[in-house]
Amino acid sequence: MFENIPVISLIILLPLIGAVATFFLGRYERYAKHVALAFSAAAFVLSLCVVYAFVTVPDASSPGYHDGYQFYEDYTWIETIGVHYTVGLDGISLPMFVLSTLLCMLSVIFSWDTTLRPKAYFGLILVLEVGVLGVFTALDYFMFYVFWEVVLIPMYFMIGVWGGPRKDYAAIKFFIYTHIASLAMLIAIMAMYFEAGLNSFSMERIALVSPGFDTGIQVAIFGALFFGFGVKLPMVPFHTWLPDAHVEAPTAGSVLLAGLLLKMGGYGLIRVAIPSLPAGAQELAWLMAVIAVVSIVYGAMLCLAQKDLKKMVAYSSISHMGFVLLGYATLTQLGVTAGVFQMFAHGLVTAVLFMMCGVIQHKCGTRMIPSLGGLAKKMPIAATLLTAGFLASLGLPGLVSFAAEFLIFASMFDTWGLWLLVPIAAVAVTAAYYLWALQRSVFGPLTDKIDTSHLHDVSWYEGLPVAVLIALIALFGVFPMLIFSRIDAAVELVLRVFGGG
Amino acid sequence: MADLAVWNSLEAFAPQLVLVAFALLMPALDYLFKDKRLLALAALAPLLGVGAAVLSWTLLGIGDPPVSQLPLVQVDMFSGLFMLVFLAVGVIVVLASPEFIRNDRNQGEYYALVLLAITGMTVVAESTDLIALFVGLEIAGISSFALAGFRKSENRSSEAATKYFIVGGFSSALTLFAISLFYGAAGTTEIAQLGPRLEAMFVQFEGTDSLVLLATVLFLAGIGFKIAMVPFHMWAPDVYEGAPSPISGLLAAASKKMGFAALFKVLLLGIIVTKTDWDIAVAILAIATMTVGNLVAVSQTSIKRMLAYSSIAQAGYILIVLPVGTEYALAGGLFHILTHAFMKSGAFMVVAALGAVAIGERIEDFKGLSRRSPFLAFAMTIFLLSLAGIPPLAGFASKFVLFSSAVYGSIDPGPSWLIWLAVAGVLNSALSLYYYSRVIKCMYMDKGPEGPIRAPPMMTVAIVFALVMTFVLGLWFDSVLELCMRAAAAFPGLPPGN
After folding, report:
1. Which residue of B has its CA nearest to A159?
2. H helices then E strands: how many in chain A?
3. Pairwise CA distance, residues B130 & B72, whole Å
4. Is the CB of A186 less than 8 angstroms away from the CB of B400?
5. Rounded to whole angstroms, how far apart are CA atoms B27 and B13?
6. To the nearest whole angstrom, how far is the Cα of B430 from the nearest Cα of chain A?
7. CA A9 to CA A11: how far, in whole Å?
8. From CA B247, how far away is CA B45, in angstroms rounded?
9. A282 in helix, strand or coil?
10. Helices (H) then strands (E): counts for chain B
11. CA neighbor of B471 nearest in space, from B394, B404, B409
12. b/e string for A451-468 if b means 16 or more Cβ within 10 A?
């Protein structure tokens, strides 16, 4: 289908053109959202074509195929130090790639009523899309890092300009915190580049020799990468930037932050750190597991204590991304595959939750759980969507998170036996805080703390993206193999270095 | 024919001759031109002309291998690269000047001094001899003292000039003393000969000589003032703040780089044989310079002082080159000097542009700038992000090469503690992001006075030039890095390091 078309570059380029077009709309700023929607939708449609053309187990001789990657493109960029522009997709990056184009498009729709500096707002969403798509397709470390950092700037501005009351603090904290993590990753990349001594930043070429590094060096480099990716994930104890950023960010910002930016950390671990440095990963697997379990349990406990609905959802992300790390820590075929699947699942679910928080904030003027109550009476559609989102997030069987979490637990039981009981207990806490929050905000008697006489239900541009996401959550909950089989095939290739996985 | 030989020997001095001729012409033109903006055009002509000539030399590879017909100077890739930096900064400064000094007297002298300062810098870049080096330093130094005090009726400007003059004079004395000691120890002032002579002497006396060490320390101190290395940095913020903004840009982006040209020549070419004596000390100074610069920058309220401290920090990054001491590191240093010239002078020109429309120099004055002038706010944001080392901008590319050279240095030629230079550099970059992003926050996120402002046209050209270079050097730096590598190859004593 795409034999001679550089389709990935095209999909990355579309939002970039859209962003430039949006920034330069001049007086016609009321059309910013239309332009942004057109370009993000075009990127989304093209990415669906990519999904259609993607082959689960490809034939090695097919065009655009290169050692596990499809739609492969490779151009020399900076010859002196061996930097290439290399992109490609495999079963691990494909779900993230489509998730990115989907969530960016839905965020544009969700922000339909933005009136404050719309040109910049929609332009930044598109710039962010460029960065995220680049991260998920890059197969060259230099390029990977460039896109990784490109993501930070639009998010910094989104929080800082369109954010809540403490936006200044949250924006700078987010920027500095994640930048320090990136720099740790940068030093690790440099060390790998020089240790490999190939004068090439190609991920594939370095991954061929890096498993042969001394264990000590592997542990050191893996540690730096783990820190760099882990802050983004985020893992306890480096999670404190996340609640601040989320609480202050505008809804679309939160959706993209939780739905895509956190995934960059999880993606980096499985694309870069684990397959390139297998000995380092094995040495530090215990650390990954401990941090994962602490993040799951601690994140869930923090959720219990939150009064702000959005802050609760933010902390729940820490807990749920802990599952990703837990899956990886097993270093087994099943665990890693389930971890990647959990990233995809969490991306869909958390987008619903943040969008519904945005709706409640928008309609009720507050997100404080004690001030809410009985919203189901006034906003039945919103209540339904929020309930569906909560149920999906707490892992109701038949919805996408259940499939992911169940498989992670299965792999954990295989690896560590009854330690499984600790994260399982956290799932009970998860159910508790979601149901408790639901009870206090949506059901029960109608609140008298806010004026409910003019309460409207969701607007079309808010309800539509959420409904789409919930449909997908149900679809992939019932048919997880649609995605799981693709991830599984790719993970098998990635885990070759562990000797059969 | 004898005069052909004379012409050949003049070739190496041709850039300086052109620049000096135009510098001498300036006061006369001042009488002729009613519209003083024409003076700026007259000053641009030699800068652009010589710049184009040097650029074509470098691209054609003339000077690789080095061309030398005169005892004191030689044209090579290293000098070509530095001259390009100086001339480019000169172009930006001259473009930004006419609106800035439109109400001042003695504009002819102003441009003459700018041209002379750049002449001095180019002499340093071309020098192969300590004496020529010193003469170049002095030509540039004296012209810059006068430029810093150009607005002599303004107290701040006069104070800046006085401070700069006293410190500059002191540092010249130290440098000269160091040169005389080098001569005493090695019996030559030719930089390339210092190493072999000293080595021969060490063999004879079985060990290094404390005289050479003393000379090195004095030289480091003398040039340390020029490049504002901690602990010789105190003058820089006061002078940058007091001097006219375009001149602050000249000092930060060009004059400082001249100091680095001198430092590289003497330490990496001349006395590289004694590297183990001074590398730890310079490494500590490098880390101290970047850390002090960044820490103090955080608490500044004046944008020019903040930029001054930030350029102290940048000098600290470039100092990494010396202890690592590989060709790759030197290439990274040269590359960073090049990118820093554009991003720092660009930032100062934004300040100058705002100064020209009577907006103050405090960080608070930048509040709401994104509404009043989207272009200036965007340009400033890009320059600051580039200074912080955010990809895909120029500052990231050059810092990447610079820091990675320290990582590689710790793996290959060693010693392994070099990795800490990269770690310190990286942590400092993160720290610097804090104060840069505060300015960005002021421009985009805070409410400020209303009313659109328009940057003067020539300044806009200067800023656009710097802006384009900041993007180009970040995205397509292949050929530039290649040039830097070739320039670094002119230093025979260095291991390759990549």
Report:
1. B445
2. 22, 2
3. 9
4. yes
5. 23
6. 6
7. 5
8. 19
9. helix
10. 22, 0
11. B394
12. ebeebeebeeebbebbbb
- Contact call for A194 and B408, based on CB within 8 A: yes
B481:A80 CB<8 A:
yes
For residue B235, which of B159, B315, B164 has the smallest C-alpha distance?
Answer: B164
DSSP-derived letter for residue B391 is: T
- The tens digit of pLDDT for each residue in A64-113 reads 888 889 999 999 999 888 999 999 999 999 999 999 999 999 999 999 99
Distance between CA atoms of A387 and A381, rounded to whole angstroms?
10
pTM for the full predicted model: 0.92
Q: Give the residue from A173, A212, A172 showing the smallest Cα distance to A195.
A: A212
Q: Would you call A373 helix, strand, or coil by DSSP?
A: coil
Does B250 score more than 50 pLDDT?
yes
Best residue in A135, A142, A167, A179 for a mutation probing chain B (most B CBs within 10 Å): A179
Q: Looking up tokens 């991304």, which residue turns up?
A: A321
A 140-159 near B (Cβ less than 8 A):
142, 145-146, 149-150, 152-153, 156-157
pLDDT tens readout for residues A270-329: 999 999 999 999 999 999 999 999 999 999 999 999 999 999 999 999 999 999 999 999
Q: What is the pLDDT of residue B69?
A: 62
**Residue A198's closest chain B neighbor by CA?**
B498
* Cβ neighbours of B391 in A, within 8 Å: 145-146, 149-150
Instruction: Give CA B52 to chain center in angstroms.
Output: 20
Ramachandran angles phi, psi of A83, nearest 5°: -95, 130
Q: Do A168 and B396 touch (CB under 8 A)?
A: no
In this complex, the residue of A150, A160, A172 whose CB is nearest that of residue B392 is: A150
The residue of chain B nearest to residue A224, with distances taken between CA atoms, is B423
C-alpha to C-alpha distance for A66 and A88, rounded to whole angstroms:
8
Quote the tokens at residue B48.
Answer: 């652009």
Cβ partners under 8 Å of residue A199, min gap 6: A81, A82, B498
Which residue do the tokens 């910002």 mark?
A253
Nearest to A144 by CA among A187, A193, A75, A85: A85
| Percentages (nearest 5) of helix, strand, coil residues in chain B | 80, 0, 20
- The DSSP 8-state label assigned to residue A71 in this structure reads E
Closest-approach residue (CA) in chain A for B382: A153
Q: Give contacts of B422 with chain A, Cβ < 8 Å.
A: 187, 190
**Would you call A193 and B404 a contact, using CB atoms and an 8 Å cutoff?**
yes
